[in-house]
Amino acid sequence: MKLPLRSFRGQLLLVFVPVLALAQLATWYLVGRFNEREARQQIDTSLQQAAQTFRRVVADRNAHLRTGARSAARDHQIRQLVAGDDPATLASALQSLRGTTDSSVVAILEPGGKVVASAGRGAPESALPTRLIALAEADESERPSAAGYGYFDGVLHSVVLVPVQAGSEVIAWLLIGFRIDREFAADLKLLTGSDLLFLGADGAALAGTLAVSAHAPLASVLQATRGHSALRQITIDGGASLAVFRPLLTGREPVATLALVYSLDEKLAPARLAGRYLAVVAVGALVAAAALALAFARGLARPVERLAAHTERISAGDYAARVPVDRADELGRLAGAMNAMSAGLAERDRVRDLLDKNVSPEVAARLMRGGAALGGEEREVTILFADLRGFTTLSERLDPPALLALLNRYLDRMSGAIEAHGGVIDKFIGDAIMALFGAPVAQGDAPARAIAAARAMESALAALNTELAAEDRPPLAIGVGINTARVVAGNIGSNRRLNYSVIGDGVNVAARLQALTRAAEHRTNIILSAATRAAAGRAAADARPLGTVTVKGRTEPVEIFAIDAPLSFHDHRTSPHTEPPFLSP
Amino acid sequence: MPSVLSTLMLLSVLLPAVGNAREVRVEVRDPKGEPVADAVASLTPLDATPVVQPPAEPVSVVQEGEEFRPHVTAVVVGTRVTFPNRDAVQHHVFSVSRSKKFDLPLYRGEPREPVLFDQPGVVSLGCNIHDWMSAYIVVLATPHFARSGTDGAAVIGGIPPGRHRLEVWHPRARSALTREVIVAEVGAATQVIALTLGVDRRVRRAPESAGGGYK
Q1: Structural domains for chain A
Q2: CA gap B140, B75 in Å, rounded
Q3: pTM higher than 0.80, yes or no?
């Protein structure tokens, strides 16, 4: 898919996807870090607990052995054997004791520490008896005893020492212990969940649950951390593990070390699996987000593009085109608004079109600004009708092109005179002109303007006639009728062709007044109705009353007036070329 | 008696002789100066063989209230000791000490025969069924001996003049303290002996209310 970066889609992707990716990455990283820290903490806790469990297990077994040993120490026969001179029997008695107490080693020591008899694995290391006796003698409790660790035949044991007494005399010591071996380590692992390894004072591995490959790393870390009990990280077979070390003491003498180990990798395995799932989900979410963003952008861009295309059509002048409004959101509203705008523009265009033909540019501009309603309305309008007299005769005399040229020349001069006084050309009917004053834009002095326009028309015609005389052509004559009346104004016509015009009786009256100028007895080219004269005020002050006439189509008689000035016009009219000379006085 | 803590110190002052002729007063104190009872002081002539005459009648070490009484008894070689039981319960008095091993299995009242102590040495007594019962019989080869009382003083009288070996023993002392003293023709001498005592190894009597009591 082509993705121009400047498109909405491209920008959305460019912003959205990196932000999401960054958020996912940050989440992944933070969760990973949190998990690792949590795992370390948990391991630390469980290793500490494992160390405590070890101490507890040893203390419990020691207590168990101590009880058995005390019981045996106060046995009269044992006492007698201890005091006696029969080490073989004593040794076999100790063997029995080993069985009943479930211990690994049992021995009778002289008060000075020399081994008198023993059962089980070999003899204790030489330093052990005196160490333990010193501890027991330092014990000032009611029932003195000592506990510690020691080696029997090189095997680590947990041992307990109790006195054998006759009265208050300590006649011997009874040593009893259990082996700390692989089996013990396995039991402890079951109990604690941690791996463990017992290391000798020299760092040599003694027994444990770990593979041989773990022994060397543990021994070297132990060497480096001597005296510290803090959590240490070690690498076993390439995997990370955490370990704590606990010294096994007899008194203050470190005899061996317990290393407790927990695999960090193992602990983190679920979190890492979750992390992988999270990564897959994150990538999926990213892809989905990108797809959604694209879809969303397309959903937004398509209608926008459509609207843009539509706008271009509108700017090209196609107001008939409509955008489908098929959604309820902002874009739908925009489409609706554009359609409404198209309709408005079309209407405006139509009106402007109309006004351009019918209305002076000034009036048209005022109309457009004002948004004039051009529906039908009743209003007072002054209607001016002008007709070229003797046009029929003229048309017979001239060839069509010359005739039309002459006609247009005439109409142009007349139109100029009318528009100069604020009149609106309503229509040309052949050689006749119908003009409106006070419509479509109201004018307070419409009748006066109409009268002024009529005078100007006469002047203009006089000028035209001068030109025509120079061209050796006959002069033209006009008749003008002006009436002021309430008429219906509005757009009249079919859907395809529409004209702003006025209709009503007043229009007919104006036409009839114009026709009356042909009557020679009136001796005028401009006839006003009484209504126009009254409304024109001073502008019609020189109007000459012509009496009342009965206008065709009207039952009531109408009072009419003539406008005579300028008189020069009439002189001009009486030139020999004038034909017919009905206007001459 | 093995005990790491028990050491023996001697702070000896020979005081000018006063009072009775040929008498040695031994004052036994612990390092804090407190008197030590139940110490046995004996003088053995170095230039003559002492003559010991065991008493005709046996010496008694009774059991009363499930305790031996007295705790320490000093006798001369050849003395017979009897162990009358004045308790309602039976006792089993025994010794596994090197100088005298004996066994008086469970009995009430007077045992059948007294025990003859014919070897010098310290004999530790016990009762096989009452671990807390403890007593000592110090068998001496000299007639010049005395046991310290609660004031810590052991007064030995009737001593022939001349060089003697002073020996002071106590159950909680690691070993006997010995010192050579010269007893003058006339006058008395006081020997102050400081003993550092080890832990009392007597088994504590279990309180009756602690359960398991036989009523």
Answers
A1: 1-285 (3.30.450.20), 374-573 (3.30.70.1230)
A2: 6
A3: no
Rounded to the nearest angstrom, the minimum Cα separation between A74 and chain B is: 8
Q: Which residues, including other chains, have CB under 8 Å from residue B144's CB and lie 6 or more apart?
A: B42, B43, B44, B45, B50, B156, B158, B159, B164
User: Chain A partners of B133 at a C-beta cutoff of 8 Å?
Assistant: 167
pLDDT bucket at A403, cuts 50 / 70 / 90: confident
CA distance A139 to chain B (A): 9
User: In the CATH scheme, what architecture does the domain B59-139 have?
Assistant: Sandwich (2.60)
Classified as helix, coil or strand, A523 is coil
Q: Which of B103, B131, B199 sits opposite A140 (nearest CB)?
A: B199
Interface touch A168/B97, C-beta < 8 Å:
no
Write the pLDDT tens digit of every residue in B60-81: 999 999 999 999 999 999 999 9
If we measure between CA atoms, which residue out of A345, A294, A356, A340 comes closest to residue A315?
A345
> Which of A83, A167, A170 is opposite residue B2, by nearest beta carbon?
A170
User: Looking at domain B23-50+143-194, which of 3.40.50.300, 2.60.40.1120, 3.40.50.620, 1.10.10.10 is its CATH number?
Assistant: 2.60.40.1120
> What ipTM did this prediction achieve?
0.78
- Sequence length of chain A is 585
Residue A137 and residue B2: Cβ atoms within 8 Å? Answer: yes
Structural domain spans, chain B:
23-50+143-194, 59-139
